[in-house]
Amino acid sequence: MAQIKFSIAITTYNRLSLLKRAIDSALSQTVPCEVVVADDCSSDETEEYIRSLGSSIVYHRNQCNMGHAATMNAAVNVASGDWIKPVDDDDYLAPNCIEEMTRALALRPQAVICSTQAAQVDIKQVEISRSRKTGPGKVFYIPQEDIHYGMLMEMVPFGTPIQVAFSRDAFLKSGGWDTNLDVCDDIDSWIRIAQFGDAIFINQCLAYRTIWLGGYNQKSTLEKRLDINILMKDKIYTLVSEKQRSILPERHVIHSYLKLHWALVALKQRKFFILLKLCFPSGFSLLAWRLLGAAILSRQTQYYSLQKRMYTNIWIMAKLYAMVGNEYRYSMPDFQNFRAYLRLRCSWTACKQGKFISAIKIAFPSVLSMPAWKLLAKSALLAQQSKKPLVRKLVLID
Fold first, then answer.
1. Cα 370 to Cα 292, 328, 340, 365, 376, distances in angstroms
2. Are 59 and 143 contacting, i.e. CB atoms less than 8 angstroms apart?
3. What's the CA gap between 85 and 77, in Å, rounded?
4. Mean pLDDT across the chain, nearest whole number?
5. What's the rounded Cα separation, in Å, for the pair 53 and 50?
6. Could you give the CA distance from residue 47 to residue 69 in angstroms, rounded to a whole number?
7. In angstroms, what CA-CA distances link 148 with 50, 191, 223, 349?
8. How far apart are CA 259 and CA 261, in angstroms?
9. Which of 165, 115, 121, 190 is nearest to 8 (CA)?
10. Helices 286-298 and 251-268 sit at what angle, rounded to 10 degrees?
11. What is the 3-class SS of 157-195, one letter each residue?
């Protein structure tokens, strides 16, 4: 099998101090790869510094300031690798990032896009959080026909550019990054690249994303980010394969879910007028609340304690339970049984992780609840009989 050649494409604009760290991480990879720096016409000493590095860097400089998307397109155009690893100048890579990606891609030649876990760090490189694991094992793939359904339902988030690598051919076929977008231009690209092959996910932290006030993600209003999110979901919706159309939520439900999500962001930022605006009329959609609850649960990382995950689950279940109409109440179990069921399910998770003392502590108040055991058995049966196509297709390859 031919060796995969990688190009690391670093985009930059007036951030020389951070750029040096990104370049060092690219040059320190454990396997050789091309390093491309695309400069969006910086006015600081970026050009002088890059030229001082000599032939170790392929340097491209825009004739004028063209924006992030156009600069990434320029980087890919001058790169010679089969695969591109994009890096924003304020982010950086683990030394073994390209080695691990190369190993995974060799196992699935049909792949056109690859994503890894990343750590979010502050400006001093202190870890704040880590992106969640996706799917089973260390490495797995998702067939092309299932990718867009997974993206729509937020089961397979590819993440930011520092997490992703893509086939250069698929990128060019997709038309590159949309220069009309200044938010979510990366996600828009992942959506289109995924039309041309499978996706690989690596459950290993191989990249670092800096969270700071100067980041590109800090410059857009909530309303604009919501509008772009809705636009992205609409694009994905049209690309979902026919076999999954029957289980898709209606488009207006997904729009309502997004408004509720950004309403929570507005609440955290104390922007109460925007909060009220987004909640009406979306707050009356039970299906939208269910999607939001599922998304909140799925975003919990492995760093949460089992107890915290359990209490979060109970809190969300209580919110959903309170919204069920009176005409359905007669057929529903008592909420105390729901709470006991959640304890049993969390206890079972602790058992699978070998945390037997935690399992006993969590399950202790609930082991005598026969309705809770029935709910647990029923949920296990439904999970076996009604698995989503995406989950059924996950294949461990390492």
1. 30, 22, 10, 12, 10
2. no
3. 13
4. 85
5. 5
6. 20
7. 39, 7, 25, 29
8. 5
9. 165
10. 60
11. CCCCHHHEEEEHHHHHHHCCCCCCCCCCHHHHHHHHHHH
Contacts of 214-218 with CB under 8 Å at 24 or more apart are: 214/15, 214/90, 215/90, 216/68, 216/88
Q: Up-side HSE of residue 54: CA atoms within 13 Å toward CB? A: 0
Integer Cα distance of 167 and 76 in angstroms: 10
Contact 183, 223 (CB under 8 A): no
Query: Predicted confidence band at 304 (pLDDT cuts at 50, 70, 90)?
Result: very low
CB burial class (10 A; 0-12, 13-18, 19+) of residue 307? middle
Alpha-carbon distance of 236 to 150, in angstroms, equals 10
Predicted pLDDT of residue 224: 87
Please name the residue that has the structure tokens 């490189």: 125
DSSP state of 385: H
The CA distance from 169 to 80, in Å, is: 11
pLDDT tens for each residue of 272-291: 999 999 998 998 998 898 88
Of the pLDDT bands very low, low, confident and very high (cuts 50, 70, 90), residue 302 is very low
Counting every residue written for the chain, the total comes to 398
CA 150 to centroid of chain Cα atoms: 11
pLDDT at 342: 80
Q: 251: which residues sit within 8 A by CB, 6+ positions away?
A: 233, 234, 237
**Angle between helical axes of 335-352 and 370-385 (0-180°, round to 10):** 60
Alpha helices in the chain (DSSP H): 16-27, 46-52, 68-78, 97-106, 144-152, 168-174, 185-193, 222-239, 251-268, 272-279, 286-298, 306-323, 326-329, 335-352, 356-363, 370-385, 389-393
Axis crossing angle, helix 272-279 with helix 251-268, rounded to the nearest 10? 160
Supply the pTM of this predicted model.
Answer: 0.75
Amino acid type, 309: R
DSSP 200: E
Convert the pLDDT of each residue in 8-28 to its tens digit: 999 999 999 999 999 999 999
Could you tell me the two tokens for 349? 């998770």
Q: How far apart are alpha carbons 67 and 221 in whole angstroms?
A: 18
